[in-house]
Design a protein that fits this description.
The protein has 169 residues and is mainly alpha-helical. It has seven helices and two strands; from the N terminus they run αααααββαα. It has a two-stranded antiparallel sheet. A hairpin with an 8-residue loop joins strand 1 and strand 2. Helix 1 packs antiparallel against helix 4. The radius of gyration is 16 Å and the shape is globular. The chain starts with a helix and ends in a 7-residue tail after the last helix. The mean pLDDT is 97.
Length: 169
């Protein structure tokens, strides 16, 4: 499973780069426009993804800044948000690379922001959630982009594996 999660960390970085490249073509007004996504805009959704990753990594590692709200706007400015996303993706990759199979099987405890109670689960399934969560909300950004007349993005894992991610096959 460790190699599987390393692949997902690399795929996550790759897919985030593609989404951010596409969002870089938006005007500031379009980037902030409420398009009916769960977090409203591309800006709100991308900030949510960064916030959620910071929350999870703080739970996993005990290090780093973590917001106290899932809808926190950590960065208004696109360039600053992108730089923070790139740094967080490097942090995720480095942390996943440091794990062992025993780490993946170990139980961790945390308290969700939306339900302040203690939860205990093995790390492996939680890590699956983290990567699935990214995919879910990147799909929302994709819909925002196409709703604004931008070209559709190819974000499929299989596409990544046929190209830049070939080493994971």
């Amino acid at each position: 499973m460790l190699r599987h999660f390393q692949m997902f960390a690399d795929y996550n970085r790759w897919a985030n780069e593609r989404v951010y490249d596409a969002c870089a073509t938006l005007s500031g007004e379009d980037f902030r426009a409420n398009m009916g996504a769960f977090f409203g805009s591309a800006q709100g959704t991308l900030n949510h993804l960064l916030a959620a990753d910071r929350i999870w990594l703080k739970r996993f590692t005990g290090a780093g800044d973590a917001p106290t709200a899932l809808d926190a706007v950590l960065f208004e400015d696109f360039a600053a948000l992108r730089a923070a996303r790139e740094a967080e993706d490097r942090r995720i990759i480095g942390w996943v690379d440091s794990l062992t199979e025993d780490d993946l099987a170990a139980t961790i405890s945390y308290s969700p922001l939306t339900m302040p109670t203690k939860i205990e689960q093995p790390l492996g399934p939680i890590l699956s959630h983290v990567f699935n969560h990214q995919t879910h909300h990147r799909g929302q950004v994709h819909t925002i982009l196409t709703s604004l007349g931008k070209p559709s993005l190819v974000l499929d894992l299989i596409y990544f594996l046929r190209g830049e991610g070939e080493r994971w096959q």
